[in-house]
Amino acid sequence: VASSVKGVVGVSEVRSRGRPGDGFAELTVRVHPATHVREAHVIADEVERRVSSELKLRNVVAHVEPSELH
User: Fold this and answer.
1) What pTM was computed for the model?
2) What is the rounded CA–CA span in Å between residue 12 and residue 56?
3) Which residues are CB-neighbours of 53 under 8 A, at least 6 positions away?
4) Do residues 44 and 8 make contact, with C-beta atoms less than 8 angstroms apart?
């Protein structure tokens, strides 16, 4: 779900607990390193909204980190 959000180039460190309707998830989303901080927060907000809605979770926290470029 999170990886389908525009601007997300990777997802890691996914943790969850609880059950549908009363669950919690925390994850890290990777964005391009040149992404402006404001845009990165917009991306994180959309990840939280979609994950919460599609997986029926009460609370979702998405942390944003720059992707590693090689």
Assistant:
1) 0.91
2) 20
3) none
4) no
The token pair that represents 15 in the structure block: 């943790």
- Dihedral pair phi/psi, residue 26, rounded to 5°: -135, 135
Q: Return the structure tokens found at 23.
A: 């669950």
pLDDT in tens, 12-62: 999 999 987 899 999 999 999 999 999 999 999 999 999 999 999 999 999
Report which secondary-structure segment, H or E, holds 38.
helix 37-55
Q: Which residues fall within 8 angstroms of residue 64, CB to CB, at 6 or more apart?
A: 28, 29, 30, 31, 40, 41, 43, 44
